[in-house]
Write a structure and sequence with these properties.
Layout: E1 2-4, H1 13-22, E2 26-29, H2 44-58, E3 64-68, H3 81-93, E4 99-100, E5 108-110, H4 121-126, E6 132-135, H5 144-150, H6 166-170, H7 178-184, H8 195-219, E7 227-228, H9 253-261, E8 265-270, E9 282-291, E10 297-307, E11 313-324, E12 328-338, E13 348-355, E14 361-369, H10 376-383, H11 395-405, E15 420-427, E16 430-437, E17 443-449, E18 458-459, E19 464-466, E20 471-477, E21 488-491, E22 494-497
Parallel strand pairs: 1-2, 2-3, 3-4, 5-6, 6-7
Antiparallel strand pairs: 8-9, 9-12, 10-11, 10-13, 13-14, 15-16, 16-20, 17-19, 17-21, 18-20, 21-22
């Protein structure tokens, strides 16, 4: 489901025709943002004509499921005539659909305690339970290939950016150094000393932010939760932003994480925190399985394994012979263990997988903990900068970049190594990448790099884990003129390799 955001436009006829064809639901807001829309400052006659024309234009599209008065228009006040008029016209000309005064409102929340206010992803999410999440997320930088479409290549040698970096600032979503600095606090997976690290770590953080809230919401499906929209899918301009697909149509790593957490049949975990786990504490993860299709799944199995820093299995849990009814989410139970010594949990990982009766993989998720090696000095600095209006001026910005550059470890980058072998199958515009983990330990974050960015190219999956000996087939579409010669595969614990001969 797409939310046509109230800071944008009322979408076009071709947009709605395509959504009708593809089965994509749309919640359409009117372009009324950060109000409320007060009269006489707003010409209600103009508003009346705009709403009337658009409701009549779009009301016969089956993809349209709800109207909205706009984005973040605040509570009712003494001058709410504009949104009241929008609701009157929507209900009058299209009584078949509900009207939502604004979002957030009436059961939904926007969680900007994460990112804007700098609060931890896990704690700030769990402290804001909601029936529906209307907005949440973390911004990230575009892929290198997209950066080179709006910045000269020599700019990639410029790190960190400063107030004089006018080109970079023009392509930050709030035109400020606070954009990358605030994102780094969620993506401190190792020293950030250049754009390559920042691109990888910011996209990782963005994917984790989408996944954590999505899992929490999905775990409560049918009981206390009804859904979520993450902010956001697509982009209006080239550069650093909340989009998972950039202005040029190129997916970030976070796009694939969003795709994975939204699989219609999936097993997943919820837990209280990512960082700060200590030896002797009891780690606990609640395990869930969802079947959001119209058909039951019989004979399924769910497995969960906790891996230590040496990628040895610390604990496992398995559920066999499951019958998953249609349109149901089930709480399976809990995997818990007393954590061993510190050297075994810096970091540690959790792999959760759903398989069919014949063992075929339906979905999997790989979570990591104690993966951000922040010093007490850095944590104190982050705690002192938790205001929406903090711009990190001058020396504060330089201090922030220095602290993240001087992180002393990269836990996910020093896991025991494994090795990947892979090949390409191609017939016309369609094909598949077959990749196999031929080592003795899991491959963490297997990543396809160099896949073409053209509009007629699409990769089914990316950024996933592989158990020892596991093979996976990743389908793709690529125009016949698209070259795949630059394709490589790697993992965060496997070297980059070319295809097997």
């Amino acid at each position: 489901m797409l939310r046509a955001w109230g800071g944008g436009i009322v979408e076009s006829d071709i947009f709605y025709r395509l959504c009708d064809e593809k089965g994509i639901m749309v919640y359409q807001e009117f372009p009324l943002c950060w109000g409320p829309i007060d009269s006489p400052h707003t010409d209600l006659g103009v508003l009346d004509r705009q709403v009337t024309a658009n409701v009549k234009r779009l009301r016969n599209h089956p993809s349209l499921v709800m109207w909205g008065g706009g984005n973040e228009n605040g509570p009712h006040g003494g001058a709410d005539e504009g949104l009241f008029l929008v609701g009157r016209r929507c209900r009058g000309f299209d009584p078949s659909r509900p009207y939502h005064r604004t979002d957030p409102w009436g059961g939904s929340v926007h969680n900007w305690h994460v990112y804007h206010f700098g609060e931890p992803l896990d704690a700030a999410t769990l402290a804001m339970p909601s029936v529906f999440y209307g907005e949440y997320g973390i911004p990230s930088m575009t892929n290198r290939s997209s950066v080179l479409r709006y910045m000269p290549e020599e700019a990639l040698a410029e790190w960190p950016p400063t107030e004089e970096s006018r080109g970079w600032l023009a392509h930050f979503h709030q035109f400020s150094l606070k954009d990358p600095i605030k994102a780094m606090r969620y993506g401190a997976y190792g020293p950030i000393r250049g754009w390559e690290e920042y691109i990888a770590y910011s996209q990782t953080a963005q994917g984790e932010s989408i996944r954590f809230t999505a899992d929490v919401q999905r775990a409560g499906a049918g009981k206390t939760k009804t859904g979520f929209w993450f902010y956001k899918f697509s982009d209006l301009f080239p550069g650093h932003s909340w989009a998972v697909v950039d202005f040029y149509g190129t997916p970030k790593l976070s796009y694939y994480r969003a795709l994975q957490v939204c699989r219609p049949r999936a097993a997943f975990a919820t837990f209280e925190r990512y960082e700060g786990w200590r030896a002797g504490e009891t780690f606990a993860a609640a395990l869930h399985v969802a079947n959001d299709t119209s058909f039951p799944l019989t004979g399924a199995s769910v497995s969960a394994t906790v891996y230590g820093s040496s990628l040895e299995a610390l604990a496992t849990k398995r559920y066999d012979g499951l019958t998953l009814e249609a349109n149901r989410t089930v709480a399976l139970g809990e995997l818990s263990l007393a954590l061993p010594g510190a050297e075994a949990i810096q970091p540690f990982l959790l792999a959760v997988a759903l398989r069919t009766a014949d063992g075929s993989l339906v979905s999997d998720q790989w979570y990591w903990f104690n993966a951000q090696p922040k010093s007490e000095v850095l944590l104190a600095f982050e705690r002192s900068h938790t205001h929406n209006d903090n711009e990190y001026p001058g020396e504060e910005a330089a201090k922030a970049f220095a602290l993240y550059a001087n992180l002393e470890d990269a836990p996910l980058r020093r896991l025991p190594e494994t090795r990947l072998e892979w090949s390409i199958e191609r017939e016309g515009s369609r094909g598949a990448i077959r990749v196999r983990n031929v080592g003795s330990v899991p491959a963490v974050r297997v990543t396809v790099e160099g896949f073409p960015d053209d509009w007629d190219c699409y990769l089914d999956d990316n950024d996933f884990g592989l158990e020892p000996g596991e093979e996976r087939r990743i389908g793709f579409e690529a125009g016949e003129a698209a070259a795949l010669g630059a394709l490589t595969l790697c993992a965060w614990n496997a070297p980059r390799t070319a295809p097997s001969a």
